[in-house]
Amino acid sequence: MKITSLIANNIHCGSNYVHYLLSKGNNKWNVLSLRGKKDQLYDLSIKNLELSRYRMLFNILLVSKILNEIRNTDVILADGIFPYIYGKIIRKHVPTIKVFFLVHNDYSINNRSNWKLLPKWLFNFIYDFLLRNEKVITTSLSASEGLKKRSIKSFHIDNGCITPIYGKNKNEDNHILNFWYVGRLVKAKQVGLLIKAFYNLPSHCRLNIVGNGDEKEKLNHLSIERNINCKFWGEIEDPFSIIHPGDIFVLPSLVEGKSIALMEAILSNCYCIASDIDANREFEKYNVTLFSVCSVESLNSKLVFSSQLSQKQRIKITRVDLADQDFSQKEMQKKYIKVFNEKNK
């Protein structure tokens, strides 16, 4: 069986990363981006980004290019509004291709960092229209529940990940207690909340922010204004290679699917703090600490508490033994292929 993941852009992070994990080690699984290598998502201003989306919608030539790329493909896994649209168009041209639609979180929640030119009701209507009566797979239980409320059927498959090669040796600055955020720097990720909550901590605590996005400059100014010990690393190919067991990983997002970054942090034996949203509650059994959504005070109390623990205490808290069993990338692949092989879905 030959499979093609159809995604909107070719950045290797966020929800896109799932597709690169699914294709890893499987030479019959290809990842195809509607935006080529020249159109990196965050090289564009928000205005130009929106315009590029509308250009993509009316780019009829792109259909023929995609059809040329997916010769002999049996299954398409589409992820995002434009991949959904092109998936439907391709199926009309090649009826033998099975098309599945991937959803990571409950899109009806009003927390968009993109598609700002569309009113929320229209955004939801488009998504509902595209997904209804289709073969839909979700990566989080919260997405499944959200779709169910909107009368859209779906299959649920948990994300998996590869155990990261994390920094096993002590950091050169071993007197510093490192707090980490790894991900996109966009509004929905609430990195600004993390910066605001980083106060009343011992002087040896440092906040490390890994990633890029349209809020990077604003966040940098905020960290300077708050006079906190903060380092912006930009994008790093293997961020967990500089993260050590007992470091503190923070995921303050308003919305998540099943976060691969959080899974990797758990497997790296970090002490993990995350926002109390549906998708993150699935991680409580690994002793991830949850804080009240959008609450600076709640997050600060968790940061202060974690800073008072010794490295050995923080390492002991995280249930890496359970995560090793649950976060299998190979098992994730098998589950998708099983769904693709099933008939009359």
TrEMBL record:
InterPro entries: Glyco_trans_1 (IPR001296)
An MF annotation (GO) of this entry: glycosyltransferase activity
GO biological processes: carbohydrate derivative metabolic process
The keyword Mitochondrion is assigned to this record: no
Top-rank lineage group of the source organism: Bacteria
Keywords: Transferase
Annotated protein name in UniProt: Glycosyltransferase
Biological source species: Xenorhabdus vietnamensis
